[in-house]
Amino acid sequence: MTHPTSPHLWPENTDVHDGVLHVNEIPVTELAAGFGTPAYLLDVPGLRSRAARYRRAFEEAFAPAQVSVYYAGKAFLSRAVARWVRDEGLRIDTASAGELATALAAGIDGAEIGLHGNNKSVEEIDLALENGIGRLVIDSLPEIDLVAARAAARGQRAPVMVRVTTGVHAGGHDFIATAHEDQKFGLSLASGAALQALEQIVANEHLELLGLHSHIGSQILDPDGFAAAAAALLGLRATLAERTGHLAAELDLGGGYGIAYTPQEQAVDIEALAASLAQACRRECERLGTPQPDYSFEPGRAIVGPSMVTLYRVGTVKPVELEDGGSRLYVSVDGGMSDNIRPALYGADYHAELAGRTSSADPVPARVVGKHCESGDIVIRDVSLPGDIAAGDLLAVPATGAYGRSMASQYNLVPRPPVVALGDGAPREIVRRETVDDLLALDLG
Ligand SMILES: *Cc1c(COP(=O)(O)O)cnc(C)c1O
């Protein structure tokens, strides 16, 4: 039993036997025969252990403060996934009526669900209140009156947090502190809008202020941005306490913990990040002379991203001469931008390996492309693949669990791939493959 190369990219329970990738002991050759391709393969024990690891890392680092970890469902949500992460002690963070309804349909208690969104509809707010939502995260000043009115109409008090734009924006290694955030989310700290929102909420009998929220970005590998945002929130919490006597109970520091997509990248060391962040928070509370709040976190990508692999079948293989005299092998797969929009959307990089056989051919420079009618339909811009790769081969792309299926489209009317759960009883689809009949069912002729 050998590991695939760069084991840190692959789901925990992945091995290679005689050149064939196995996920939870099942060969992908068998999975391709049984479920077809493309397919997202989910390592269920791997997903559960990542969820538990994130929860423990924050709980241990921040003890004795109370810690809740919310799984950010937008990364990928299905009823089975909601139940698995709930069973590992996580709550669920949602950002639409569809995500909220999915979490509720999974049997998650409304009190263990949060609702985000910069443009929540009245229907979304009502659905949340009707189900005893644990927290609504307020994202604008007009939303305060809207949520209060809906809560009043139901004779309820809505539990809310305020999403604060701290001026810390992070993503990848760089974080840039700006006085004002030119983006749509949250209420600005610098302009005073965040403090104004907090004061309005404290004064409103139909709203219960739980705390302050910050989400600084995604795919972040450097802990400094989190600490800077936490310090800003703790300062605002102290100011609010001074002005109103209300000491907010909780700080939500959001998600955004980075993972490895390519062999060169390393995921965030979550235990080290949580420890340094907890220490920064303790120091800041001491400096401000305020007691420690409770804390919550919202990892999405870091839980589900590394737990899935996309399995493709290779079709056309085409050598293309380059202007510099070199050549590149264009390897077409049976999916593409419809099942993974991230390369086209963000220029995101991925890795791929031949998954169904051994090869002793020398590696050649290759580009993995999809089957869609766009030249930007690229799965992997630059990757080395065995020079004898050919139609019919299986190709596996790791770390596709987050923002893969959840951002999938039916572009070119290509039905969306299934999510196949492995390591939880017999292999089975937890989201079935879409069919052309599904697509035609929406077409009213
Ligand atoms: C997207 C998002 C998350 C999750 O981000 P990841 O990068 O997937 O960890 C958490 N909280 C909020 C408010 C978000 O918008």
Automatic annotation (TrEMBL):
Domain Orn/DAP/Arg decarboxylase 2 N-terminal: 55-305
Matching Pfam families: Orn_Arg_deC_N (PF02784), Orn_DAP_Arg_deC (PF00278)
Pathway stated in the Swiss-Prot or TrEMBL entry: Amino-acid biosynthesis; L-lysine biosynthesis via DAP pathway; L-lysine from DL-2,6-diaminopimelate: step 1/1
Binding, substrate: R301, R342, Y346, E374, Y403
Keywords annotated in UniProt: Amino-acid biosynthesis, Decarboxylase, Lyase, Lysine biosynthesis, Pyridoxal phosphate
Gene Ontology molecular function terms on file: diaminopimelate decarboxylase activity; pyridoxal phosphate binding
Active site: C373 (proton donor)
Segments forming domain Orn/DAP/Arg decarboxylase 2 C-terminal: 306-401
E.C. code: 4.1.1.20
Cofactor: pyridoxal 5'-phosphate
Positions of modified residues (N6-(pyridoxal phosphate)lysine): K74
InterPro entries listed in its UniProt record: Ala_racemase/Decarboxylase_C, DAP_deCOOHase_LysA, De-COase2_C, De-COase2_N, De-COase2_pyr-phos_BS, Orn/DAP/Arg_de-COase, PLP-binding_barrel
Recorded catalytic activity of this chain's protein: meso-2,6-diaminopimelate + H(+) = L-lysine + CO2
Enzyme class: lyase
GO BP annotation list: lysine biosynthetic process via diaminopimelate
HAMAP family: LysA (MF_02120)
Alphabetized PANTHER family for the sequence: DIAMINOPIMELATE DECARBOXYLASE, GROUP IV DECARBOXYLASE
Protein's job: Specifically catalyzes the decarboxylation of meso-diaminopimelate (meso-DAP) to L-lysine.
The family this protein is said to belong to: Belongs to the Orn/Lys/Arg decarboxylase class-II family. LysA subfamily.
Subunit structure: Homodimer.
Entry protein name: Diaminopimelate decarboxylase
Species name: Ruania alkalisoli
